[in-house]
């Protein structure tokens, strides 16, 4: 049987085309995986940033709350005398006894308030 070189060439070209098709498919798959991976990485980074933001907000809220608690702890327990509450020595002060600091008491002057 005489050997036809054209058959060999066609066969070689078919093999080459098939190999090239497989290479392209593999390349496409690799690129797709890389795309998916970068998407996942971006998603993870976004979630991480969001979690950090929430934690920071929570810490700020806790700090504000702590400051309010500390302020409440050092605030005087009694209401001011001019509100008609009990004064430091335990006596009741009615609204009429309120006076300016530089003004003498009524008993000291012997006359009604101006």
Automatic annotation (TrEMBL):
Biased composition annotated in UniProt, kind: Low complexity: 40-49, 60-75
Region (Disordered): 1-114
Biased composition (Basic and acidic residues): 1-23, 50-59, 97-114
Protein's name according to its UniProt entry: Uncharacterized protein
Organism: Calcidiscus leptoporus
